[in-house]
Design a protein that fits this description.
Radius of gyration of chain A: 22 Å
Distance between the termini of chain A: 25 Å
Number of domains of chain A: 2
Structural class of chain A: alpha/beta
Order of helices and strands of chain A: EHHEHEHEHHEEEEHEHEEHE
Strand order of the largest sheet of chain A: 2-1-3-8-7-6
CATH superfamily of the largest domain in chain A: MoaB/Mog-like domain
Shape of chain A: elongated
CATH topology of the largest domain in chain A: Molybdenum Cofactor Biosythetic Enzyme, Chain A
CATH class of the largest domain in chain A: Alpha Beta
Number of helices of chain A: 9
Oligomer: homodimer
Number of strands of chain A: 12
Chain lengths: 253, 253
């Protein structure tokens, strides 16, 4: 793979319960970190209700624009689970019971328990391949560049692990996080200069208000590790020149 | 206000840190619940990076479609805070130092501390009105049907309280949540029937996997309280007919 190739992605969260505030979406952040570790850039996320027209419109906008789209939610057995039909409609393909999905689900339930509504979970758009569900059997699926996953975080995470080998990887993004008990506005001019001097990285400034005090984290991200380190060191210098001690925060920024 | 009038809204989350997975967005869920209490329907949410073209495109799509748009993030003093300029560009208006915002900020800082980068926080698109910031002074603003707020949750929440009196309210959505230790697939046919018989409400089914066991919550939402209660009671009946005891979960669903 060429270093110049960018692999992009969008997340489409499907569910009334996110838009009502009933449920805090955590899948987007998880997918973002998961893709980041593969060098794939999450470029956009959208949340839409359980409405076929809304799902189709958002999906078609996103799948035309990004390398991959990851959807979450709406693939269970109940009447409000309409994602599979919406994906088929978006692609203009049919949808029917998938023999392998039917067999997997039939094996899971006791005789008499595999009712018609549960069979809905085996309805898969034509041409899609399954994504195994190691938690609760009912599979997700991949159609073209779209990966359709469950909304329950534990199941979504298992599906993400399962589908990862199918993904093209991009060049890894390196990051460095510098934290200081300094108001971001005090070194904002230096940050702007550092951003201008290190054009291949992005410099983000994130103030925090915590019980133990206020300050900011300065996050440098980029595909050139040496440039990331150079920009982070320059930020540390700028903070020290204000008489304040910066600290490096480990982990991805 | 007529009961038939719907007041709709979208959230536009602006920030690289959400798309990298560094920061878990909690503002969308808070805004959703806040608007719900005013009878305003959150219909869509999007997350875009700190990129003017992306912000402009998303904002123009959303503000044309919904009664209100609420943005979060990108109004601080640093180079990566580009929201105000992007909003001005989206509306095709100029942007300049706002006298009242300048005065508020000048009063906050000690002599010599109100540097040029901090003055950026007083740059407000032409024609916008300010949204007070009781936490850290730098104001948000309203331009047309768009409300521009900070990304730091504590500040965003204060701004939301401040701007609430400007909002049209819709008819309140009532909700009822029934929980049971039952797999949703077991009563999925009954749920579909109840949804058909109560067309003015929406019936959502949300399985859970908790340390103390698995089950599902069934959430009924609608503007007719009697219909919400009737549908919730029908769900309780369906669960009881399987020999399982449902419980009502208090609070909004």
């Amino acid at each position: 793979m060429s270093q110049a190739e960018t692999v992009s992605a969008a997340v489409l969260v499907i569910g009334d319960e996110i838009l009502s505030g009933r449920t805090q979406d955590t899948n987007t952040a998880h997918i973002a970190r998961f893709l980041g570790a593969l060098g794939i850039d999450l470029c956009e996320a959208r949340v839409v209700p359980d409405d076929q027209g809304e799902i189709v419109a958002a999906l078609n906008a996103l799948r035309a624009r990004y390398t991959y789209v990851f959807t979450t939610g709406g693939i269970g057995p109940t009447h409000d689970d309409i994602t599979a039909d919406a994906i088929a409609a978006a692609f203009g393909v049919g949808i029917d019971y998938h023999p392998e999905a039917l067999a997997l689900l039939a094996a899971r339930y006791k005789p008499g328990e595999f009712n018609d509504m549960r069979k809905r979970m085996a309805r898969i758009p034509d041409g899609a391949s399954l994504i195994a569900n190691s938690v609760s059997t009912a599979p997700g699926f991949q159609l073209g560049n779209v990966f359709v996953m469950a909304g329950v975080p534990m199941i979504m995470r298992a599906m993400l692990e399962e589908l990862a080998p199918r993904l093209k990887r991009g060049a890894l993004v390196h990051s460095a996080t510098v934290e200081a008990r300094i108001p971001e506005g005090r070194i904002a001019a230096a940050l702007a200069r550092i951003q201008r001097e290190h054009k291949t990285v992005s410099v983000g400034s994130y103030p925090f208000y915590r019980e133990d005090g206020t300050g900011a984290q300065f996050v440098v991200r980029g595909r050139d590790a040496a440039e990331v380190e150079a920009a982070a060191a320059a930020i540390e210098m700028a903070i020290k020149s204000e008489g304040i001690g910066p600290i490096r925060v480990p982990g991805p920024g």
